[in-house]
Amino acid sequence: MRITRRAALASMAACAQQVPDREFDPPLLDPKFAAGKGPVIGIDDRHHNFHTVDGGYSTFARFLRKDGYVVRAAGAQQNILVIANALSKENARRWTAPYSPAFSDGEAQEIAAWVKQGGSLLLVVDHQPFPACNNTLAAKFNVQFHNGYASDPERGRSPSVFSMSNGGLRPHSVTAGIDSVATFTGSAFQAPDAAALLVFGAQAVSSTFDRPGGARGKAASITPVAGWLHGAALEFGRGRVVVSGEAAMFSAQRTGAEKAPMGMNHPAAANNARYLRQVMGWL
User: Which residues sit opposite 268 in a β-bridge?
Assistant: First the structure.
């Protein structure tokens, strides 16, 4: 199917309506580390990432700096690598098939080897087309994303609330003391070697669309994803990986003409900042 330039630009314009909420500043009264003395967190910005340290993940960076971490763009040295919504050069402005990997097989092997030797990775892969562009890297950790938009009637929709009471939030040191977290659409994945953090319910599906911005139209295919994961943690050699099927939950953005809150600034996401702290603490 041929996609017109107008349709592609319309999709990109819809994404541009998401802007960082730079006024949102969640409190943090008990920093884990002295200011600037904590581990170095490097946020990838070399793979056409939708979220970067000065862009969509500016709140992510500001909040974790308050916890004592050093947060900057990824470079040669960091303790924790964050990869959020990487895209290939070909798909950076064209969110339709054919999809190309954001990471070459050599890059993916290098990242996996770094983790195995003791590095820590937070891999964030949102809805279509991000799964298709990140599965080469994810496969190195035996993780497989479905290239669609995941939805779950049991959890609600944008935000979806994963809680202990509805079975969506699972016990783990990452989730200790948290009764719920909120996510904003995203993807579903399978990770047989990982511990579940967020799990989809019995009616969950992942819908794949054949054109940019297609989530507002008719799906080309719908795949049941009951029991699939939306968040997971795994040991990998001497290192650790946390996988998230949604990006906005770790950010604070404003979206649409109404500038509605999306992310940690949403009323339903009161526990997301603590969840982020505990993710980074476990890594």
Answer: none
Give the β-pairing of 149-151 and 205-208.
antiparallel
Please determine, for residue 53, whether its predicted confidence score (pLDDT) is greater than 90.
yes
**Collapsed DSSP state (helix, strand, coil) of residue 128:** coil
Query: For 94-124, what is each residue's pLDDT tens digit?
Result: 998 999 999 999 999 999 999 999 999 999 9
* Residue among 181, 197, 186 at smallest CA distance from 268: 181
Looking at residue 214, its pLDDT comes to: 56
Residue 66 · residue 80 · CB < 8 Å: no
- Give the pLDDT band (50/70/90) at residue 30: very high
145 forms beta bridges with 189
CA distance 101 to 107: 11
Cβ burial 191-224 (10 Å sphere, 16+ → b, else e)? beebbbbbbbbeebbbbbbebbbbbeeebeeebe
Mean pLDDT (whole number) for 131-158? 96
CB-CB neighbours of 90 under 10 Å: 14
Q: What is the mean pLDDT of residues 71-87?
A: 97
Structure tokens at 176: 């200790």
The distance of Cα 199 from the centroid of its chain, to the nearest Å, equals 15
Report which of 253, 229, 207 is spatially closest to residue 145, judged by C-alpha positions.
229
For residue 42, give the amino acid letter.
G
Would the pLDDT of 6 be above 90?
no
Q: Which of 160, 159, 168, 237 is nearest to 202 (CA)?
A: 168
Dist. CA 108–CA 196, nearest whole Å: 23
